[in-house]
Amino acid sequence: MALPLEDAYNDVLGKALRGTGKSPSELAAESGVEIDQIRALIDGKFDAAAARAVAVSLGLSPDRVVALGEGTYVPAPVGVEGLRQFNTPFEDMTVNAYLVWDPESNAAAVFDTGTDAGEMLDAAAKIGARIEQVFITHSHGDHIYDFDRLMEKSGAKAWCPKGDEVEGAEVFMPGRTFSVGALSVEARLTCGHARGGVTYVVRGLALPVAVCGDAMFAGSMGGGAVSYADALRTNREAIFSLPDETILAPGHGPLTTVGEQRAHNPFFPEYR
Ligand SMILES: [Fe+2]
Hints:
Number of strands: 12
Strand order of the largest sheet: 1-2-3-4-5-6
Bound molecules: fe (ii) ion
Oligomer: single chain
CATH topology of the largest domain: Metallo-beta-lactamase, Chain A
CATH class of the largest domain: Alpha Beta
Shape: elongated
């Protein structure tokens, strides 16, 4: 069964509101939408005309915010041999981890751990994939919850980006490229949600794959807790420079592609 989208239209509005630092009264003045109606909108009472006006003031794509509100954006199913997503519960949400393997040599890598790496370890054993490396997108608790057990069971070498250190993982600088069998894994800086967050671009499968943590979601992105401006900028530089067919493997919600996010992500209205 397909995972639901991580964010609703009002999550997107809330993230953009916090990110731009606008007050509800400033937003009301700019958008011409009454402040009470803005509050209702952010609380989840969808109104297309109000959502459109507010989206424009927040630099979002009005059509794409409305598509989220009306439920008309549904990610197309995507996948490729050598990539599997694992979705585990965390408080009232869920979090993704990924197994990537080279089908020729069965050398494998894990990207983040989720809250329970058990199913991923079982799947690797069943496939015959050897988990040699663990790559951390960012160090937020839900993404590394089962790190110690994964390390103990797999005996793998772990890597984390500078700025998002994890005890037991070796720190690297973004820009570095790793090898997993015949696959290459290029780490690109996608900070802003997290201080040192990275996106790992995997090449060598039938389609390129970008494991992006919370830098981007299908139809949304992680909140810009460190820097909203950096989150937008680094996503433009590191993710939207990838080919459209690149599978985007986010830390929450369903798989998507770079091309689909060009067309549907409300935070990047400039792409078509
Ligand atoms: Fe996060």
